[in-house]
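Translate sequence into structure tokens.
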Amino acid sequence: MSQENDIMKYEIAEELGLLDKVKSTGWKSLTAKESGRLGGILARRKRQARNEG
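Result follows.
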């Protein structure tokens, strides 16, 4: 995954209120629901960026 995607992941995690959880216990500690929500938002933003660029 590119550095840009990693940055986006952290930004989205912060928006969803999951950043503290990720920092303390890692990405694997997220529930399936949390991971799915984060992944869905990430995919949507990447798609929007691709369409705008």
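Note: The CA atoms of residues 10 and 28 lie 14 Å apart.
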